[in-house]
């Protein structure tokens, strides 16, 4: 069993050395895109939900 665990960590470490990590600027830019997109979609769906709720209340 210990051989399996040590083999797993050794292979995982070898694979992580192959990863091309993004630069800090790239991470910050991607985070900004995600945050802005989340806010815009939330606002859109909030407005649609509000309008549909008011429309259904007026209908019934």
What is the first-to-last residue Cα distance? 66 Å
Number of strands: 0
Indicate the percent of residues in helices.
over 70%
Shape estimate: elongated
Helix and strand topology:
Blueprint: H1 2-16, H2 24-59
What key attributes describe this structure?
single chain; 60 residues; 2 helices; mainly alpha
Question: What can you tell me about this protein's structure?
Answer:
There is one protein chain. By secondary structure, the protein is mainly α. The protein has a domain at 21-60. The protein is built from two helices and no strands. The mean pLDDT is 95.
Short précis:
The chain is mainly alpha-helical and about 60 residues long. The protein is about 85% helix and about 0% strand.
């Amino acid at each position: 069993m210990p051989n399996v665990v040590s083999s797993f960590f050794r292979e995982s470490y070898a694979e992580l050395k192959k990863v091309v990590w993004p630069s800090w600027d790239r991470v910050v830019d991607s985070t900004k895109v995600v945050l802005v997109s989340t806010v815009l979609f939330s606002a859109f769906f909030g407005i649609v939900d509000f309008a549909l709720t008011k429309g259904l209340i007026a209908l019934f």
